[in-house]
Every structure is written in C-alpha cells, then in structure tokens.
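User: Predict the complex with manganese (II) ion.
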Amino acid sequence: TTEMPAPDPDRPLPTVSPLRILLAEDNKVNQTLAVALLTRVGHHVTVAGDGRAALEALEGGEFDMVLMDVQMPELDGLEATRAIRARETGDERIPILAMTAHAMKGDRERCIAAGMDDYISKPIDPRALHLAIAQLSGQRVSTGSPRRTAPPFDHAKALYHVGGDPEILGQLVDMFLTQS
Ligand code: MN
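Assistant: Here is the predicted structure with manganese (II) ion placed in the model:
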C-alpha cells in the first residue's frame, strides 16, 4: 500500500538496485516521462504500447517488475494483468504496479482484484513512483542523506504550458532532469 507522499524537495528519492522494468503505457508523453524517471536511477526499461504488446514482451524477455497503465487500447491494464496472473505457475509472481489517470474511488480495489500489487495515480509523482517500486522490489530502500532535489515534476501542468506538444515536453523533461 502506497499513499501519495507529500512533495518534499529536501528529501532524496528512495532508490533500489537496477531493475528490469516493463513499462506498459500507451501515452507517448507518459512513456517519455516514466522512462526518464526510471532510467535516471539506473533501471532498464522496455516500453510496450498496449496490454497485448506487454504480454508479448513478457513472453520474450526477463523482467523484475511491470508498470501497468490501466487505460490502454487492445488489452487494458486490468485484462493484461489477469492474463499475466493466469499464465504464472508455482511460486512465480512478477510485481505489477498499476498507474491510472483517474484516481477514482474503487480504482485500487479493481486493480488489486485484477492481480496488481500496488497502485499510483497519474500524473506520476516521482517520489511515489520510486517508493512503490522500492516496496514492491522487496529491496532495502536507500535514501542516503538529505540533499537538495528538484521539486516534483507536474507533467500535466508542463504539458499545458507547452501547448500539449509531447515532443517539446520531452525536451522539457530532459532539461528538468539535467538541472536537478
Ligand atoms: Mn493510457
């Protein structure tokens, strides 16, 4: 269970050893942002553009965790998760972290019922993302000593300010990450 933590610029982000993460996300802006946030702390990210592509990626590769958007074409995150769980045998159970744009009452219950392990809401809060990943990984969380970090990136706000252009937002994200 991960509640959205309050933004605190003075606290370093929780980090864990590099993981192989499958990112199932259909929105290009969210893909760009999530990949930037994940690779920045050393994770290896493979992107799947919908639930069906995610299932194919899981068949063809080794992953430590899945970040699963709930709303996707072809196969949505809930359906994809049910399919993943149905395929698992014995003790294997890949951690699946749900991401959804609509933080509606009942979302968490639907995600957990489908077989997901935890849930974060979009726009992605970097601290909430890293904290949820750390908890799901089962690794000891390293936060190091307090240092200055950039404030959480409000991607919806940023997208608004770039007129909804994902390419420009991508450049903005790069600049944001370079500065922090
Ligand atoms: Mn989506």
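Residues 30 and 123 are 8 Å apart (CA to CA).
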